[in-house]
Amino acid sequence: MPIKLPSFRPRRDAYPPDLWTKCPSCEEMLFNKQLDKVQRVCPNCGHHFRLSADARIGLLVDHGTFVERDAGLQSVDPLSFVDQKTYPDRVAAAQLATGMRDAAAWGTATLDGRPVALCVMDFGFMGGSMGAVVGEKVTRAAEYALVQRMPLIVVSASGGARMQEGTLALMQLVKTVGALERLRTAGVPYISVLSDPTTGGVFASFAVLGDVNLTEPNALIGFAGARVSAGTIAQELPVGFQRSEFLFEHGFIDRIVHRSQLRAEIAMLLGYLVPASRTNGSNGDVEPLGLPSFRPLSFLTTLAERVMPSDPEPPVPAPTNGPRASGRAIAPVEAPVHLPAPPTVAVDTPHATEPSPELPPESPELAAIAAAPEALTPAPKAESATPAAESATPEALTPALESAAPEPEAVAATPAPASDPSGGDEAPAPGIADEGGRHG
After folding, report:
1. At the topology level of CATH, where does 50-272 sit?
2. pLDDT tens digits for 360-395?
3. What is the rounded (10 degree) CA torsion for 196, 200, 204, 205?
């Protein structure tokens, strides 16, 4: 009789997802029930698995004290966005998989007996992307913490802004930062916990603005992917530059805390970070601390000056007198242009009392006029005639005028005489006056 050997099935490489989980670091198969008992941390290598929002809330706050607020907020489809699926279909699928309305939940609870406002994100809901609902919940949590003057705790787990909502998703960066700035000005503590992963618009807004920034070991933290960052600056970046250990070494993260010690760490920080308040003695209202507000433009200007310092300009000495010292504006003065002074001719007239100056030797015509001034006395017009002018006749003056008068072109080229330094008016050139006398 032949012997029948038992048949052995080949070992399966795939395991039911609800029973076993493979560690991505050490590739060890872990039983899910045992993994949940150790807060989903690999007992072999210490890898921290991602947590859902409900598991994170149960890990941090006192049991049964969390009260969710604004649970009915839900995203709409303002852009009618369609890729492989419509946006409403993606939201419905994520709601069915996670049991949440959106990627964030906020409410109030107590942590070690202290009341806190808590906002937790879930990466399982469309990658924890931040849309209008997520930004609204973070903002409402900050505003409630400001009114009640209780500490705010935000646990981030997101891939960035939600592209299906376009500009509306990007507007949440400004809204959340503004709410946290009012919280900081009022002196209310804010603790930010950056879990794996925290990237994109969430990293660029409220996730890194905490008074204390905590993170878990080996968490992925950054704005863009490693390949995109290296291609943008055209440089080779160090290995692990987006991990929490690298950021902690360079001062970007305050503490790296193991998941089993995270609750105790936050409770200790809340003992030191007490909401500051100043009451008005008259009515008991809470007054702001008057801390300096964050000014993005001044911050960026200072940063640009440090990165790219400009060459200092030489100082200009301030005037001690004059219109600049008094603050009055003055018109620019052009440099003076020195022109040669034109030759002048002085002829005795009935009103002139000084003798004629000596003429330049290079002008023979003018020299002849100066030699016989009494023969060249101009004859005025009839209406302005004087007794001295009536005695001279045109026939007596004709020979002298024909020999001494210059050509018309030379008369036109002669420049106008300058004014007398003594202040009196000077007689016109004799050539012009004689010509008028002859035709008069």
Report:
1. 2-enoyl-CoA Hydratase; Chain A, domain 1 (3.90.226)
2. 455 555 555 555 555 445 555 444 444 444 444 545
3. -80
